[in-house]
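Worked Example 4.2. Consider the chain below.
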Amino acid sequence: MHTDKKIFPVLYPLNRDLSKRWFIKYKVQCYTTGALVSKKYTGALNLIPDLQQRIELAEKYMAVIKRGEKLPDLQGQRTASELHQPKSFASAIACTMQYLSTGTHGLRHATLLDYRCKCTIFCKWLQSSGHAQLTIGALSAVHVKEFMHYCKTERKLSNTTANDYKHTLSTVWQTFVLDGKITTNPWKMVKDLRNDTQHMPAYTPEVERTIITYLPQHHPQLWLFLQFVYYCSIRPRRELRLLKIENIDFENGTITVPGSLAKNYKARTVIIPNVLLKQIMHWQQYPLHYYLFSKEGTPGAVRTGLNYFGYKFEDFRKAYNIPTQYKLYASKHTNNRKMAMLFNAVVLQHHNGHSSLSETQKYIGEMHWRDLEFLRHQIPQMGKLK
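Applying the procedure from the previous section yields the following C-alpha cells:
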C-alpha cells in the first residue's frame, strides 16, 4: 500500500527556548502528485517542562517522521480545555487576565486600578518580547529580571516604582501558588532594586513664613486643607479629601479616619489642635453627610477632585516663588520633623496612622540629615551626663 512520504523534519525553536512553543516542521511528498506540502506537529512537546526530556521526545517524533510511520494523534491536546491540562502549563497572560477578572474582589477602587495597570503592562511586555506563549510554570527569575530591566530602560521608571511592579505581580503569582497552579513564586526569587527614592523635603523656615503670611488671603480653603495635613497628619488625596462632617467630634476636638479610607485599612482618631479647631467650629451647622472640602470653598455635598488642592498649591507656589521641591504634602513631614524632637515613636505612629512601629522608625530615619540640626547645640558632651 502506497503512502505519502514524510521528509525534512526540523525542530523549532532552533535555540531550544522553553518559553516559546515547540513544534516539528516537515514536508510531506504526495505519492500520486509528487508535490511537497509543509506540515507542523507538536504532539506532547509543550507539556514537558524539562529541556532534556523535551528534546528526547522530539527526537523520537522526528525518527517516526523519517521512517514514514504514523505519528501519535496528540494534536487535539493543543486546543483542549484547560481543565484537562496541567495547571502549570496555562498561559501566563491568560492567568493574569483571569486574576484581574475574578481574583480582585475586595480591593479598593484605586488599588484595583493600580493592579490592572501593572498587570496590563506586564502582559503587553510578554507579547512584545516574544513570550506570548509563556506558561506560568515556565516563568522564571530570568524573565522577572528581564521585565525589571524593561521597566528601568524602556519605561524609565525609578527603582522604587519598578519594585512596586514586582511586588504587585508577586502578589498575583502568589495566588497561583495557593491555587496549586505552580509550586514556587519566581517574583520572590529576585531581590528588590536599590531604593533610589528622593524623599520629600520639609518646609524651610522661610517657606513656612511665606505660606503663613500669604496663603490665608490667597486661598482660604487651601489654607485650612494644608493645616489639616500639617496638624493631623491626614493624607490629603485618599483620606482628607473624602472625610465628612460626621467624622469630626466637635465636642472632644477629634477627627476620625474610617478604616475604609485609611491607607492601612485601620480606623484612627486624631486630636485636632485648638489652633485649628477654633477655625472650623462653625462647620457644625452643615449636614453630617457633607464633605469637609468642596469646590464652593465650604463643606458641600460634592467632593473636590483628586488633584484639586495639589493644583491650587502649585499655583500658589509659582505666584510666590516657592521652590518646586516643596509640595502640599510636605506640610505633614514638616510637622513630623518637629514632633520627632518632642514625642516618642509610639505617639508618632498613632498620629501618622502607621501600621507598625518599625514603619514609623523607618519614616523618622528617612528624614533629611538637616532635620537633626538641633544636635549641633544640644548633643551631650563627653564627660558630662547632660
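The longest strand covers residues 5-12. The two ends are 107 Å apart (CA to CA). Compare this with Example 4.1 before moving on.
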